[in-house]
């Protein structure tokens, strides 16, 4: 995919690398036993460690480490059996320790990659540089009192993963595809809920521009962007700003910027800090983190099937086309629903019903797949009724509508409404005779060569049988009688 900005001095290419902060799903914090539950009363989930009382000692949470390793495995990345925690020193009112415990030189996860899919089914690999664990900070509340600010430390010490990409992204759409894919993988793994609007996943967006074939130029980092749409917008706007600067003979300064979606601009937050500004050093309260290959292997063996593998399997096992398979695996709940419907049945028919009638019913009723008005089992039973000839495909749509409205089983609806397909050739022949008698003129036209009228007769006979006749038998009967 190419995204080119045409300037007055020629064409510019954009270069983007993303740093994603993803909150780890765990009951307790990275170095304390305090709860991580969302939405608690301010400061009700704060241990002495999180409040940084003197003399408190951090103790690593094994489950958080497991989650980081699972994520690394899901990103096809190298797992480092030895890693280390460092102190990143800075002062801010939401950080009582005066430093954040993070991993700097020795992260737990090294190089990996994510495959993204672009319009038209083209795929690309985006490199992952590293994944490390770190603590989240607290939250300042500025809107509770006219003259004072408060601090809520519930989030202080919650475990985050920072997932850093290589500067491999070349278009806003690629950044969007990367974030969607990353979120999908995290959700499948159950290591982060990926809810950007609740702040459990947020992105720092590094942007630079260059002429094709040139080395990279200076980048700017746009901090804490909290939706995929905003990330894409911020890239577009920031790249245009940089092109303008270069083309007017200026220099882009390396700095940290803020995206203001309301005004459609990015603006300076602060000049870019360097690693040495943070006075990183190994946290003396924590031993190096050493994990065993055997433990990693165990975690790997227990990983769920991930979206790429599931998609390939759906294509192969159920004959689902590439595009549809992507739609089905986008959310695990949809994939599970589909598989319950498809198992032991016609996979292509299953995918048409799930992505067609079912999705539109969900849309119409404002439901999600989790509280679908029609269960996967019920939809499967309905497909069985089509397969064994009890109902035809057209009647099936009416049955399905009825299932959406009443929640009754397909058998009950077919029984109650007398929708059973008519396969009795005596009944079908009688209907054909009646229609031919009623439209003697059309029969004459047909017999004098107007073949196209055949469809008209089929329609009439179906109507006569209230849509219940077996279409193949109707065809046979009509052919026999009209051509007689
Ligand atoms: P820091 O730790 O100072 O933020 P890193 O070297 O770790 O710097 O890079 C952070 C992010 O910036 C990475 O996602 C990387 O891909 C991206 N990046 C590095 N150089 C460039 C560049 N010239 N243009 C765009 N993004 C870049
Ligand atoms: Mg950074």
Automatic annotation (TrEMBL):
<dbReference type="GO" id="GO:0050567">
    <property type="term" value="F:glutaminyl-tRNA synthase (glutamine-hydrolyzing) activity"/>
</dbReference>
<comment type="subunit">
    <text>Heterotrimer of A, B and C subunits.</text>
</comment>
<keyword id="KW-0808">Transferase</keyword>
<dbReference type="GO" id="GO:0005524">
    <property type="term" value="F:ATP binding"/>
</dbReference>
<comment type="similarity">
    <text>Belongs to the GatB/GatE family. GatB subfamily.</text>
</comment>
<keyword id="KW-0436">Ligase</keyword>
<dbReference type="Pfam" id="PF02637">
    <property type="entry name" value="GatB_Yqey"/>
</dbReference>
<dbReference type="InterPro" id="IPR014746">
    <property type="entry name" value="Gln_synth/guanido_kin_cat_dom"/>
</dbReference>
<dbReference type="InterPro" id="IPR017959">
    <property type="entry name" value="Asn/Gln-tRNA_amidoTrfase_suB/E"/>
</dbReference>
<dbReference type="GO" id="GO:0070681">
    <property type="term" value="P:glutaminyl-tRNAGln biosynthesis via transamidation"/>
</dbReference>
<dbReference type="InterPro" id="IPR006075">
    <property type="entry name" value="Asn/Gln-tRNA_Trfase_suB/E_cat"/>
</dbReference>
<dbReference type="InterPro" id="IPR018027">
    <property type="entry name" value="Asn/Gln_amidotransferase"/>
</dbReference>
<keyword id="KW-0067">ATP-binding</keyword>
<dbReference type="GO" id="GO:0016740">
    <property type="term" value="F:transferase activity"/>
</dbReference>
<protein>
    <recommendedName>
        <fullName>Aspartyl/glutamyl-tRNA(Asn/Gln) amidotransferase subunit B</fullName>
        <ecNumber>6.3.5.-</ecNumber>
    </recommendedName>
</protein>
<dbReference type="InterPro" id="IPR042114">
    <property type="entry name" value="GatB_C_1"/>
</dbReference>
<dbReference type="GO" id="GO:0006412">
    <property type="term" value="P:translation"/>
</dbReference>
<dbReference type="InterPro" id="IPR003789">
    <property type="entry name" value="Asn/Gln_tRNA_amidoTrase-B-like"/>
</dbReference>
<feature type="domain" description="Asn/Gln amidotransferase">
    <location>
        <begin position="336"/>
        <end position="482"/>
    </location>
</feature>
<keyword id="KW-0648">Protein biosynthesis</keyword>
<dbReference type="InterPro" id="IPR017958">
    <property type="entry name" value="Gln-tRNA_amidoTrfase_suB_CS"/>
</dbReference>
<dbReference type="Pfam" id="PF02934">
    <property type="entry name" value="GatB_N"/>
</dbReference>
<dbReference type="InterPro" id="IPR004413">
    <property type="entry name" value="GatB"/>
</dbReference>
<dbReference type="InterPro" id="IPR023168">
    <property type="entry name" value="GatB_Yqey_C_2"/>
</dbReference>
<keyword id="KW-0547">Nucleotide-binding</keyword>
<comment type="function">
    <text>Allows the formation of correctly charged Asn-tRNA(Asn) or Gln-tRNA(Gln) through the transamidation of misacylated Asp-tRNA(Asn) or Glu-tRNA(Gln) in organisms which lack either or both of asparaginyl-tRNA or glutaminyl-tRNA synthetases. The reaction takes place in the presence of glutamine and ATP through an activated phospho-Asp-tRNA(Asn) or phospho-Glu-tRNA(Gln).</text>
</comment>
């Amino acid at each position: 995919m190419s995204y080119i900005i045409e300037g007055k001095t020629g064409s510019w290419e954009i270069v983007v690398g993303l740093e994603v902060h993803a909150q780890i799903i765990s009951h307790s914090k990275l170095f304390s036993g305090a709860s991580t539950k969302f939405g608690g009363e301010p400061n009700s989930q704060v241990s002495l460690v999180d409040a940084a009382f003197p003399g408190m000692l951090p103790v690593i949470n094994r489950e958080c480490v497991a989650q980081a390793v699972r994520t690394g495995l899901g990103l096809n990345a190298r797992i480092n059996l030895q890693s280390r925690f460092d102190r990143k020193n800075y002062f801010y009112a939401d950080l009582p320790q005066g430093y954040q415990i993070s991993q700097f030189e020795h992260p737990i996860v090294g190089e990996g990659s994510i495959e993204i899919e672009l319009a038209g089914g083209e795929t690309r690999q985006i490199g992952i540089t590293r994944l490390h664990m770190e603590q989240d900070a607290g939250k300042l509340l500025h809107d509770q009192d006219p003259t004072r600010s408060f601090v809520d430390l519930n989030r202080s010490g919650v475990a985050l993963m920072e997932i850093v990409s290589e500067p491999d992204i070349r278009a806003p759409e690629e950044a969007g595809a990367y974030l969607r894919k990353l979120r999908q993988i995290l959700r499948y793994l159950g290591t982060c809920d990926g809810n950007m609007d609740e702040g459990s996943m947020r992105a720092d967006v590094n942007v630079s521009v260059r002429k094709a074939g040139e080395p990279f130029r200076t980048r700017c980092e746009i901090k804490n962007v909290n939706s995929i749409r905003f990330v894409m917008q911020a890239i577009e706007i920031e790249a245009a700003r940089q092109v303008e600067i270069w083309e007017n003979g200026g220099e882009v300064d390396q700095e940290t910027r803020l995206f203001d979606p309301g005004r459609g601009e990015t603006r300076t937050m602060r000049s870019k800090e360097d690693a040495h500004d943070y006075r990183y050093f190994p946290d003396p309260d924590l031993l190096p983190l050493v994990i065993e290959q055997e433990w990693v292997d165990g975690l790997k063996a227990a990983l769920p099937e991930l979206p790429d593998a599931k998609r390939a399997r759906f294509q192969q096992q159920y004959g689902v086309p590439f595009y549809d398979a992507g739609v089905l695996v986008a959310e695990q709940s949809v994939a599970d629903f589909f598989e319950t419907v498809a198992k032991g049945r016609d996979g292509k028919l299953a995918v048409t019903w799930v992505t067609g009638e079912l999705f539109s019913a969900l849309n119409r009723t404002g439901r999600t797949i989790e509280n679908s008005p029609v269960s996967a089992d019920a939809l499967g039973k309905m497909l069985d009724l089509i397969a064994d000839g009890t109902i035809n495909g057209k009647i099936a749509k009416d049955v399905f509508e009825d299932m959406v409205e009443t929640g009754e089983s397909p058998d009950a609806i077919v029984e109650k409404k007398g929708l059973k397909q008519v396969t009795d050739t005596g009944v079908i022949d009688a209907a054909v005779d009646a229609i031919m008698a009623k439209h003697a003129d059309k029969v004459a036209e047909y017999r004098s060569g107007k073949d196209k009228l055949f469809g008209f007769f089929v329609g009439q006979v179906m109507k006569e049988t209230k849509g219940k006749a077996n279409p193949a038998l109707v065809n046979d009967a009509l052919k026999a009688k009209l051509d007689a």
